[in-house]
């Protein structure tokens, strides 16, 4: 089976995010007065061949934790869909 | 015979020749090593130089740690060999797990290229053994991701074990505890954001980096003789 994985990587809560803060500071000038707590991150997508969803999840999680995110400062969220 | 200092060249490294000149000004012999080779050619120390290894894609150092040479560097470090990561090299060492913590984007997202005042805060490392505790040095920094961060327990250990080797006087990038450089438990692996090789000749405006490079050459000689 083939699965499409989407991994979203963000800085851990409590780690300063100067990029998110800079975006947030620009918002009032654009009229977005009701928006707060902006956090920046990155998204990756890839496809995985695996026997079942569990196996695909194991591979994608390992890839996310060993390479895509630096666990010292970042956390990742994985979304998996069969294709 | 002068000790041989291996300087690893990754695709995108750009300070390797400066480091070779710097270690030669400090009495060593510089040897360029290619990141794709899985062995170190019998050098007495290894320097991971500054630059943008593998384009800094993903995160600085994230891909360089998978280069074939890094396994040999890990083995060399574990055996007590002197390993120094300068700037991008420091980022590679943290990504490879040879040093704790991480280097994130500078506070206020500023790229910094300027002389930095740093204080020697430990002499228990291969890079600071010949320096004087409390000595202030002026050494250039040139980075976007030099903002050192680690968890509280790691920070306590770094402080208690005197593994913070250099601290900024003005902390330009927002590093925790003004950290500019750290060492591993045994002091043979050191990472720092300032570039000592850019302060190794009067023509460059400062020779303050020479004491650090001389320390490294000294540690390498001791190893070569052993």
Describe the protein in words.
The complex is a heterodimer of chains A (83) and B (226). Chain A has 83 residues and is an alpha+beta fold. Helices cover 35% and strands 34% of the residues of chain A. In chain A, strands 2-1-3 form a 3-stranded antiparallel β-sheet, covered by helices on one side. The relative contact order of chain A is 0.35. With 226 residues, chain B is an alpha/beta fold. Chain B has 5 helices and 11 strands. Chain B has helices spanning 16-25, 69-78, 88-95, 152-160, 210-225; strands at residues 4-9, 29-34, 45-48, 83-86, 102-104, 112-120, 136-143, 147-149, 164-168, 179-183, 189-192. The longest helix of chain B is centred in the C-terminal third of the chain and has 16 residues, at 210-225. Chain B is globular. Classes of the chains: A alpha+beta (83), B alpha/beta (226). Chains A and B meet through helix 1 of A and loops of B.
The gist of it:
The complex is a heterodimer of chains A (83) and B (226). Chain A has two helices and three strands.
Q: Kindly report the spatial arrangement of strands forming the biggest sheet of chain A.
A: 2-1-3
Q: Which range does the strand content of chain B fall in?
A: 25-35%
Question: What's the story with the biggest beta sheet of chain B?
Answer: 9 strands, mixed
Helix content of chain A: 25-40%
Whole-angstrom Rg of chain B: 15 Å
Query: How far apart lie the N and C ends of chain A?
Result: 8 Å
Question: What does the secondary structure layout of this molecule look like, with pairings?
Answer:
The complex is a heterodimer of chains A (83) and B (226).
Chain A: E1 2-11, H1 18-30, E2 41-49, H2 53-68, E3 74-82
Antiparallel strand pairs in A: 1-2, 1-3
Chain B: E1 4-9, H1 16-25, E2 29-34, E3 45-48, H2 69-78, E4 83-86, H3 88-95, E5 102-104, E6 112-120, E7 136-143, E8 147-149, H4 152-160, E9 164-168, E10 179-183, E11 189-192, H5 210-225
Parallel strand pairs in B: 1-2, 1-3, 3-4, 4-11
Antiparallel strand pairs in B: 5-8, 6-7, 6-9, 9-10, 10-11
């Amino acid at each position: 089976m083939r699965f499409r994985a989407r991994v979203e990587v963000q800085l851990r809560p409590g780690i300063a995010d100067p990029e998110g803060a800079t975006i947030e500071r620009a918002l009032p000038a654009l009229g977005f007065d009701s928006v707060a707590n902006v956090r920046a991150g990155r998204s990756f997508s890839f496809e995985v061949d695996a026997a079942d969803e569990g196996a695909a999840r194991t591979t994608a999680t390992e890839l996310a934790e060993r390479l895509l995110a630096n666990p010292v400062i970042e956390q990742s969220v994985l979304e998996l869909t069969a294709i | 015979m002068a000790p041989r200092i291996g300087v690893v060249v990754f695709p995108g490294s750009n300070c390797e020749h400066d480091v070779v000149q710097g270690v030669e000004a400090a009495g060593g012999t510089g040897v360029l090593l290619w990141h794709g080779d899985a062995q170190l050619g019998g050098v007495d120390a290894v320097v991971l130089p500054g630059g943008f290894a593998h384009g800094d894609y993903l995160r600085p150092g994230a891909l360089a740690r998978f280069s074939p040479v890094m396994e040999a560097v890990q083995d060399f470090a574990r055996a007590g060999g002197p390993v120094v990561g300068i700037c991008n090299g420091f980022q590679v060492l943290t990504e490879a797990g040879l040093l704790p913590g991480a280097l994130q984007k500078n506070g206020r997202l500023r790229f910094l290229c300027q002389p930095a005042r740093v204080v020697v805060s430990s002499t228990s490392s291969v890079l600071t053994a010949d320096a004087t505790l409390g000595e202030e040095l002026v050494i250039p920094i040139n980075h976007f991701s030099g903002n050192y961060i680690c968890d509280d327990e790691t920070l306590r250990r770094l402080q208690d074990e005197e593994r913070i080797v250099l601290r900024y006087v003005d902390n330009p990038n927002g590093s925790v505890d003004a950290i500019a450089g750290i060492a591993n438990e045994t002091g043979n692996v050191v990472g720092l954001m300032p570039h000592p090789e850019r302060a190794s000749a009067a023509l460059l405006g400062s020779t303050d980096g020479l004491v650090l490079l001389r320390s490294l050459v000294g540690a390498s000689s001791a190893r070569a003789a052993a």
